[in-house]
Amino acid sequence: MNTGFSPARALAWMAILSLVLAACSAPAPTADGPQMLPPTATQPSVQPSSTPVPPTPIPPTPTELVPQRPLSGLAADPQRIEFQASDGRKLVGYYYPSKYADAPLMILMHWAGGDLCDWSTMSPWLQNRADENPPQIERCAGSAGASLAGIFPPMAAEVSVAVFAFDFRNYGESEKGPSARRDLTLDALAAFEIAAAFEGVDASRMAAIGASIGADGAPDGCLLYNQKAGGGCVGALALSPGNYADMNFAAVVRDLAPVPVWCLAGDQDGESAPTCKSASGEHYRMQVYPDSRDHGMMLLTSDLVPPALDLIQEFMDLVFGEPMQ
Fold first, then answer.
1. What is the DSSP letter of 245?
2. Where are the domains of the chain?
């Protein structure tokens, strides 16, 4: 029997050995390794598009949907206004337009120690149009109002209040002649009436700030105007009132309710502190500063806590319904 390998058998064994070695050298698939699956007959081939797909538009945010406040179109320059009280006395004031249409209006009433120039720096602060550089009233150069320059707190950029400062009879540019203390109320009422007709003013949002005689004129005029026009004055702030116009301050506060009235005075101010303390009510706020003799405009420049100018901003936040800071 022939037990040797024939050439054909050797070639067969070599082929088998090659297959075994190839199988042993192939890597085993792992459980977490990627597996390549052949595409099924239902998977369509994706062809690149030559036309770009436009991006999905992003809807506007809620703030972008709110329209911008319309501008008044009025110059920032103060306008000289001549008007009359009901008894025919000629009065003069200056109107500082807001940059916006239908803006709230603040009427400023001076004390016996000065005239409308007391407000020559506060008016542009409230108007808040410094970027337009409104000129000051020429005759107010060097006035007591200049002492307020540089002490005003920041005003929100979007705020712009219309302002009307006027001279009571026998002061400044207004007509001189015999008068009584009660005539101050005629002038205060006339200021509200003329200001309500100004272009760019929302006559349903008018308020007043006054010092000393103006501190009585502010709430007195507010009450008289609301009684005559049915409303429109939304607040009054008094810096050292003293019943100087022969209308009782406490009674005016009571009759104005729910219109807010705020009263500021030094507790050593013999007339003003008792006047502030005489009034009360849900919508009345009193700030009497301890150990202070400051009166009227002096409350604005004194180192008091809380600062009077900060309270003025807070007052406007309340009555005008707009944040001032």
1. T
2. 79-320
Residue 270 is encoded by which pair of tokens? 């013999």
CATH code of 79-320, in short, is: 3.40.50.1820
Give the type of residue at 64: E
d(CA 255, CA 175) in angstroms, rounded, equals 31
pLDDT band at residue 19 using 50, 70 and 90 as cut-offs: very low
Q: How far apart are the first and last CA of the chain?
A: 118
| pLDDT tens string 89-123 | 999 999 999 999 999 999 999 999 899 999 999 99
CA distance 210 to 182: 16
Q: Kind and range of the H or E element at 223?
A: helix 213-229
Cβ contacts of residue 99 below 8 Å, gap of 6+?
71, 72, 76, 127, 128, 129, 132, 160
Sign of the CA dihedral running 217, 218, 223, 228: positive
Q: From CA 309, how far away is CA 206, in angstroms rounded?
A: 19
Tens of pLDDT, residue by residue over 231-275, are 999 999 999 999 999 899 999 999 999 999 999 999 999 999 999
Where are the strands (E) in the chain, listed by range? 79-84, 90-96, 103-109, 162-167, 201-211, 233-239, 261-266, 284-289
Tokens of 87: 């008894």
Q: What is the pLDDT of residue 34?
A: 43
* Cis bond before residue 258 (omega within 30° of 0): yes
68 neighbors 111 (Cβ within 8 angstroms) = no
**Residue for token digits 């595409």?**
39
Distance CA 278, CA 96 (A): 34
- Both tokens of residue 206? 């008018």
Could you give the percent of the chain with pLDDT greater than 70? Answer: 79
| The two structure tokens encoding residue 14 | 């070599």
The pLDDT of 1-7, averaged and rounded, is 46
pTM of this prediction?
Answer: 0.79
